[in-house]
Structure formats: structure tokens, C-alpha cells
Specification:
It contains six helices and eleven strands. Strands 1-2-10-11-9-3-8-4-5-6-7 form an eleven-stranded mixed beta sheet, with helices on both faces. The chain starts with a strand and ends in a 5-residue tail after the last strand. The protein has one domain: Dihydrofolate Reductase, subunit A, CATH 3.40.430.10. By secondary structure, the chain is of the alpha/beta class.
Length: 236
Amino acid sequence: MWGRHADETGFRVLLGPEGVPGSDLATLYAAPRPAWLRVNMVTTVDGAAAGEGGRSGAINNRVDKVVFDHLRASADVIVVGAGTARAEEYRATDRPIVVVSRRGEVPESLRGAPAGSVLMATCSSAEGLPAARMLLGERSVLVLGSHRVDLAALRSELGRRGWTQVLAEGGPHLLHDLVAQGVADELCLTIVPLLVAGERPRITHGPPVGVPLRPTLLLEAEGTLLGRWTVGSPEG
């Protein structure tokens, strides 16, 4: 059964379980399994994943921030591509952050973070490997693969550390690789009511993939749409 309802917060459930108040994000965004990897992204109606300065913060809004904060609070660990961490000037949070980088370069804004709060997932061929170990400590640098980061191995390593609820926050290269390597379970996507035109990145970037998605939730508030899609396996 599917419902359509709203409450005082303004969230309307357009697709999802019947009888759940729109503000009950804990229920609406509950992970179906103890081990779950979701990717959270934002886009404009015309498909831009970033606005001025190449930042998603230039296009998101209050409604997106509510769900963004809830997903972070529900996660054990946050995974982010190095380019996104640099562009968005990530800072240490109350959740550990894992930066994925083939080059092993720790973003400037995350240097000097408390010990253990920032980790690096990189390759044995990474130029920045020695510097990353010096900055973050040996245990916080995960060498997973020779020339590309093995994301399945990363997920397994996070699970061994007790971090089973994983939130990936992009960017487009990381989202592509997560679905291409069959590691992502779910895509959470916010569509903001905005057109920006210009040459903007999409939420995925990389070689073509064929990955089916199954919608499980669609919310609306202030013209913003927020959805959950279960991710299938690449075709062919």
C-alpha cells in the first residue's frame, strides 16, 4: 500500500509506506539490513550536481539539509571522494570520514583533524601514500588495490571496524565506481526546483554502466523532491 500525506513539517510522502508521518525520517529512511551502503546526492531539475564554484552547497536548500543531517546522524561512517572533500571543504565531524583518493592526497581542510577521525582509502601506487601515513597515522591509511581503490574491500574493512551503516556523499566519480563495482545498496537523491544551465557535472561521471534502480520512497516539500532507490547490479 502506498500513501500520500503531509504534516506540519511540510514533507509529503508521495511514494512510500502508508500511515507514516512525513516528519518521521527515522522510519522513512530506515536501512533494511544491519549492513547497508547508501549514497546521498543532490541535483537540479536540469541535471546539475553542482552550482557556482563546483560545489553542491551552491544548489542545495533547507529541505535537503534536513535529510542530509538525518542521514549523517544515522551513519556509522562517511565516505567521500577526495575531489568532493576539497571542493566542499570538508571538516571533521562526530562520524569518522573516509576519503577515497587514488593519489593519496589528504584534503587541506581535513589535515590536523583529531586522530582517527579522518581515514584515507588509496592504492599502493599512490604518490601521496607516505605523506598520508604521516598526517593520519598508519592505521588510518587503507591501501586497497594497486592502481584503483577496491571499494568492495573498503566496505569489508569498514565492517571489520564495526562501521556497517555507510553513507557515501559522492562525488560523481565515486558514485560511478560504487555502482560499477556493485558496492552501493541505495541511492538517496534530492532534486531541487532549480535550473542552472551551463556546463555542470552530473551525479555520475565515468564509463557507461547499466544499473537498474527501484524506487522505494519519494517525498516532497517546498517543491523539492527527495527519493530513495535501491540499486541493482550492472548489466552485461
